[in-house]
Design a protein that fits this description.
Structural class: alpha/beta
Low-confidence stretches: none
Number of domains: 2
CATH class of the largest domain: Alpha Beta
Bound molecules: adenosine-5'-diphosphate
Number of strands: 11
Helix content: 25-40%
Shape: globular
Strand content: 15-25%
Mean pLDDT: 96
Largest sheet: 6 strands, mixed
Distance between the termini: 8 Å
Order of helices and strands: EEEHEEHHEHHHEEEHHHHHEHHHEH
Radius of gyration: 21 Å
Length: 371
């Protein structure tokens, strides 16, 4: 038996799921940790609550989601003191994300000292992107000194979904090229060549690339200088604006795409423009990754928006028929696994992501445990 507990620790929440093989035995979410009105005062109490709740018999591993693995971590890694220190050293690269994972790791190691723990990094899948896809054309010595380069995120999702796409199409993942579009609150695109990431839209942080719920995605960096120098905004405020008050929220006042779609249906001009900006950005990345890959065997939508919005899927790929890309309206509405009409050159798929399952599988792999 190889049961795995997957923990996804955020700054004020812990998501957990207990697996037996691919089967989920228990799952839950503890929110508003340490906030007034929250259930628990800190991460220790949250994790203690989870341990009390679930049956720990036969637990073979704990898999931790860690957002940033820097250039250092290119695979799931069994956690020891040294690994913790290396993840700590990455905090300056991911000040908004890594501290929470470290807290989760520290508490879980104390509570379950005899269970091996594995760190699974959002960045690791992108370690295969070639240098020309991660280097930005800035002063080389500055980039090296400060570890400035593209890292990419959502790696467990892109890995899982690209592999599943090949399975759905009855192909060998090692010989299949897929453009994966992970469209959730955060959103990113990835070009996957034979199971390996070769391009992705997020960067040093999850800020660039596609338009997201509250993040801007790509902008000209001059916007930041301008807001600082001309508008007089402090840098922290600009960062907060671009990460938490931009994207769909910035354009419409609502970060949830469902709200934007409702307002658009009612004729709201801001919502209509936001939808168009959102879908056009996806189309631009699809075009870019067609060029990166040369041969594309599938385009796959996943995550909250990608799995649930026929409107976004249709609009993002509209006008691409000359490139052999089309969406069949009826299949798209029914959300079939393949939503392109039969006979189009590049199949378009909708594949539900499962980052926790992928983390559980990768944790077992790191420990050479059977599934
Ligand atoms: P996260 O990135 O937090 O894991 P999800 O992948 O669950 O988020 O995606 C959440 C987003 O999915 C919501 O903010 C919402 O905009 C979108 N979404 C969920 N259901 C629908 C739907 N039926 N139609 C359109 N958008 C949806």
């Amino acid at each position: 038996m190889s049961r795995v507990l997957v923990l996804n620790s955020g700054s004020s929440s812990v998501k957990y799921r207990l697996f037996d093989g691919a089967q989920t035995l228990a799952k839950g979410l503890i929110e508003r940790i340490g906030e007034s009105g929250g259930e628990v005062p800190d991460h220790r109490a949250a994790l203690q609550g989870i341990m009390d709740e679930i049956d720990l018999a036969g637990l073979a591993a704990v898999g931790h989601r860690v957002v940033h693995g820097g250039a250092d971590f290119t695979a799931p890694t069994v956690i020891d003191d040294q690994v913790v220190a290396r993840v700590e050293a990455l905090v300056p690269l991911a000040p908004l994300h890594n501290p929470a994972a470290l807290t989760g790791i520290e508490v879980a190691r104390k509570l379950l000292p005899e269970v091996p723990q594995v760190a699974v990094f959002d960045t690791a899948f992108h370690a295969t992107i070639p240098p020309e896809g991660v280097v930005w054309a800035i002063d080389k010595s500055l980039a090296e000194q400060w570890q400035i380069r593209r890292y990419g995120f959502h790696g467990t999702s892109h890995a899982y979904v690209s592999r599943r796409t090949a399975e759905v199409l009855g192909r060998d993942p090692a010989g299949t090229n897929v453009i994966t579009l992970h469209l959730g609150n955060g959103a990113s695109a990835c070009a996957v060549q034979g199971g390996r990431s070769v391009a992705t839209s997020m960067g040093m942080s999850p800020l660039p690339g596609l338009v997201m719920g509250t993040r801007s995605g790509d902008i000209d960096p001059t916007v930041i200088f301008h807001l600082h120098r001309v508008a007089g905004l402090p840098l922290d405020e600009i960062e907060d604006s671009l990460t938490r008050h931009a994207g769909l929220l910035g354009l419409t006042g609502a970060n949830d795409l469902r709200t934007v779609l409702e307002r658009r249906a009612a004729g709201d001009a801001d919502a209509t423009l936001a939808f168009d900006v959102y879908c056009r950005r996806i189309r631009e990345y699809v075009g870019a990754y067609l060029a990166v890959l040369g041969r594309v065997d599938a385009i796959t939508f996943t995550a909250g928006v990608g799995e649930n919005s026929p409107a976004v899927r249709a609009a993002s790929l509209s006008g691409l028929e000359p490139l052999g890309i089309a969406v069949d309206p009826a299949r798209n509405e029914r959300r079939e696994e393949i939503i392109s009409p039969p006979g189009t050159r590049i199949p378009v798929c909708v594949i539900p992501t499962d980052e926790e399952l992928e983390i559980a599988d990768q944790s077992r792999e790191a420990l050479s445990l059977p599934r």
